[in-house]
Amino acid sequence: MTQQTPLRRVALNLAATGIPVLPLRPGKAPFGNCHRCAGNACGGRPNMKTPGPCDCPSVCHAWAAATTDPAILASPAWTAAWRRAVCVGYHPGAAGLTVVDLDDAAAVAWAHATLPATRTVPTTRGEHWIYQGAMASHNAVRPGVDIKSTMAYARYLGPGAGTMTALPDVVHALVVKDPSPARPTPRSVSVPARSGGGQCPHRTPAFLERGIAMAEQRITQARTAIHATVYGAFLAVLSTHGRCSCLTDTHVARLFTAAQAKGETARHCTDAWTNARTTLGL
Question: How far apart are CA 72 and CA 64, in angstroms?
Answer without folding.
Answer: 14
